[in-house]
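Lab notebook, design round three. We kept the backbone fixed and only want residue identities now. Task for the bench partner: fill in a sequence for the structure below.
Input structure tokens:
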């Protein structure tokens, strides 16, 4: 066994930020196993593509033989599992891919990792880690005065996406409990930052505001999310990988609850400031549209366990993080053009026209 890390879904938003952060530290070689769905983008990793410590393998986590080959030939000491279908609205329109990747794919990965792990020496087995990246959405929805979700909050997933992630969390738990696989699970709140696919709230609003298009806010815009800068999330994952206790769950959040409308208004102000002015303030582009079915009202994370046990706290404030993020999208038009072609436009037309 080597200290190599196999990262699944490393060409996506959080996975690519994680790989870039780890490559700066140069502590362990990285194998990026990614299927390259619409959400995967190798341009995110252009700066490390030729590095000796980085390798890309195109492949599906649900393909047993391929996963086995990767494990047997690269002999990793850890798996960091990001690969997933991740967009709630897509899961409502078509849940099947979510079950296939998030549930079946995680199951195949766990089975193959279990076989590989069983072949290691006792000392290697002890050092090995399987870190599963999950979400706050598995806990369901909070009322306005409820305390934030903690690691013992009962699961109550409400969308097909959340249900598929909850199922994968349960499988990971069972593989630790039954087989002793040294697993770690992280459940994180909403991330924002560079490389996020612009189907998600913040990048969608930045690009629509830039172009003077309408800004579709679901329902009354009062749903609350707890926003965390993606680099803080990646840092938290590294801390859990390094010092987390096998079999444990760590909640990660930004202590930064905001209503969607507040987020969109902030984006409007920043785009007005940084992009060429439109005849009217971008705020006027805000349009309330039909709500997301089953839309969770409020998420909030109690991240005291990871702070207490591993000394992790978010470093970026929302004010600085959102400013950097808006600037990044405005300054990286080539990246934006690369991801907003054919199939993206089709999704936007289908989803927002109905
Ligand atoms: P993303 O949609 O941007 O990226 C997903 C990546 O997984 C893509 O590169 C895609 O090509 C790859 N992938 C999809 N199916 C695959 C398969 N079958 N085999 C191999 N690769 C496959 O997602 P993200 O926003 O970066 O989220 C990453 C993980 O973090 C997910 O597990 C998600 O549930 C979790 N998460 C996301 C957030 C968030 O705010 N984005 C918050 C908490 C947790
Ligand atoms: O909470 C963590 C989760 O955050 C992750 O597990 C998911 O992978 C990630 O996609 C994200 O899920 P959300 O559904 O919270 O993110 P999204 O950006 O799709 O929406 C954020 C909020 O904004 C939500 O309340 C819905 C609302 N929204 C979203 C879009 C795309 C709008 O009002 N209008 C929109 O056009």
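Proposed sequence:
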């Amino acid at each position: 066994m080597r200290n190599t890390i196999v990262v699944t879904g490393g060409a996506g938003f959080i996975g690519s930020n994680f790989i870039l952060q780890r490559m700066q530290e140069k502590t362990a070689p990285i194998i990026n196993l990614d299927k390259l769905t619409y959400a995967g983008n190798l341009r995110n990793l252009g700066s490390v593509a030729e590095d000796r410590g980085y390798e890309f393998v195109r492949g599906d986590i649900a393909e047993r033989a391929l996963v086995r080959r990767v494990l047997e030939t690269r002999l990793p000491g850890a798996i960091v599992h990001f690969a997933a279908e991740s967009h709630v609205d897509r899961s409502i329109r078509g849940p099947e891919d979510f079950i296939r990747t998030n549930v079946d794919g995680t199951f195949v990965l766990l089975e193959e990792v279990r076989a590989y792990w069983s072949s290691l020496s006792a000392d290697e087995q002890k050092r090995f880690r399987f870190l599963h990246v999950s979400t706050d959405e598995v806990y369901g929805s909070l009322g306005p005065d409820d305390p934030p979700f903690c690691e013992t909050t009962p699961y109550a997933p409400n969308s097909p996406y959340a249900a598929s992630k909850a199922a994968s969390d349960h499988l990971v738990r069972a593989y630790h409990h039954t087989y002793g696989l040294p697993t770690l699970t992280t459940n994180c709140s909403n991330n924002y930052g560079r490389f996020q696919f612009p189907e998600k709230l913040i990048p969608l609003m930045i690009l629509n505001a830039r172009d003077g298009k309408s800004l579709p806010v679901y329902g009354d815009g009062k749903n609350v999310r707890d926003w965390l800068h993606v680099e803080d999330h990646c840092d938290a994952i590294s801390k859990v990988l390094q010092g987390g206790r096998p079999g444990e769950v760590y909640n990660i959040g930004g202590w930064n609850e905001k209503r969607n409308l507040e987020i969109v208004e902030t984006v409007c102000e920043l785009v007005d400031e940084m992009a060429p002015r439109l005849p009217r303030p971008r705020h006027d582009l805000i349009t309330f549209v039909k709500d997301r079915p089953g839309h969770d009202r409020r998420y909030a994370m109690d991240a005291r366990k990871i702070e207490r046990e591993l000394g992790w706290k978010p470093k970026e404030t929302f004010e600085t993080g959102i400013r950097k993020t808006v600037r990044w999208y405005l300054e990286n038009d080539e990246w934006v053009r690369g991801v907003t072609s054919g199939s993206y436009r089709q999704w936007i037309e289908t989803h927002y026209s109905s």
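Keep this in mind before ordering anything: Residues 8-9, 11-15, 34-37, 39-40, 60-62, 82-84, 86, 101, 105, 133, 135, 165, 188, 190-191, 197 surround nicotinamide-adenine-dinucleotide (ligand 1) (CB under 6 Å).
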